[in-house]
Write a structure and sequence with these properties.
It is a single chain. By secondary structure, the protein is mainly α. The chain contains five helices and three strands. It has a domain of about 130 residues. A hairpin with a 3-residue loop joins strand 1 and strand 2. The protein is elongated.
């Protein structure tokens, strides 16, 4: 069995579900408020506004018109994240957090595309000209960044690759201690489960 698998599934699943639920609740609120004529709405003057945009593309309005392809892409991304988290022996905690957030965001936008044919975007920056986005986009973007940092910096597999090679005299790396036999005691902070 993969070490720490229940922890990985619990954390990634909880974060994915949190991103998904917050995303869907905020989008439903925006669609209801749109009917009432509440937009645009200033949230923090000069910083954040809410303004409804029906986005037929991917995050931040890119590649409009390929909605069904992006639903399929979301399925592939979520499946790849699940396979990685359930099969990789060494995964950093950062990767687990990031991939959970990514999956929740991908599912949130896929639900919009499947139900409405567009993604409900509503968070607009007032201080800079930036595409309107939503909670799922935040989950995807932040999740990818966290997962990449976890993979590149904190990955236990990367640390093993950096260990000194055995000498040509036939030295072998030391055997793990009894404490390192799977209870997690031999891990450093940030290393995976």
């Amino acid at each position: 069995m993969v070490p720490g698998l229940p922890w990985r599934l619990a954390v990634a699943g909880s974060l994915g579900l949190l991103v998904l639920v917050v995303d869907q609740l905020t989008k439903a609120w925006v669609r209801d408020a749109l009917v009432a004529g509440a937009f645009p709405m200033t949230v923090i003057p000069g910083v954040i506004e809410f303004d409804f945009v029906a986005n037929t593309g991917v995050s931040f309005g890119l590649a409009a018109g390929f909605g069904s392809a992006f639903v399929l892409l979301a399925v592939v991304v979520v499946a790849a994240a699940a396979i990685y988290l359930t099969r990789a022996r060494l995964v950093s905690r950062w990767e687990v957090v990031g991939l959970g957030m990514l999956a929740g965001g991908a599912i949130g936008n896929a639900i919009d595309r499947a139900l409405f044919g567009f993604v409900t975007d509503f968070i607009a920056t007032a201080f800079i000209d930036f595409p309107v986005f939503n909670v799922a986009d935040i989950g995807i973007t932040v999740g990818v960044a966290i997962a990449l940092i976890g993979f590149m910096v904190f990955s236990p597999a990367a640390h093993r690759d950096r260990e000194p090679e055995a000498s040509s005299a036939g030295d072998v790396p030391p055997e793990p201690s009894a404490a390192g036999s799977g209870d997690g005691a031999d891990r450093t902070p940030g290393e995976g489960l």
